[in-house]
Amino acid sequence: MSRFTTACIVGGLAAASAFASTPAQAGYYILRWDNTGICQVWSEAFTFKPIRWPSGYKIVSRPVPTFNEAVNLQVRLRRQGRCTL
């Protein structure tokens, strides 16, 4: 085998292994804080949950796949009067 062919095979295997090892995209959802009514975009990729002090929160949406969709959903909830900010 020529060096070029070997380099292409090694590069292809490296790219395939990098693609296979990347985790699936996490979703985003909207939280509504009880004391202020503010809605916040939260990612499922975070390894921790929001702290419930000094206020609690409620999840007011189903998970959406992209941050853009989550922001659009947050704006829609604000227009409906379900969120203050």
Concise summary:
The chain has one domain (25-85). Helices cover 38% and strands 16% of the residues.
Describe the structure.
The protein has 85 residues and is an alpha+beta fold. Helix content is 38%, strand content 16%. It is built from 2 helices and 3 strands, in the order αβββα. The protein has helices at residues 3-21, 67-79; strands spanning 28-33, 39-43, 57-59. Strands 2-1-3 form a 3-stranded antiparallel beta sheet, covered by helices on one side. A hairpin with a 5-residue loop joins strand 1 and strand 2 (39-43). It is elongated. Keywords: Signal. Residues 1-26 form the signal peptide.
Characterize the largest beta sheet: strand count, sense, and whether it forms a barrel.
3 strands, antiparallel
What structural category characterises the helix and strand content?
alpha+beta
Average pLDDT: 81
Overall spatial form: elongated
List the helices and strands and how they pair.
Layout: H1 3-21, E1 28-33, E2 39-43, E3 57-59, H2 67-79
Antiparallel strand pairs: 1-2, 1-3
Please describe the structure with a list of short key phrases separated by commas or semicolons.
3 strands, three-stranded antiparallel beta sheet, 85 residues, elongated, 2 helices
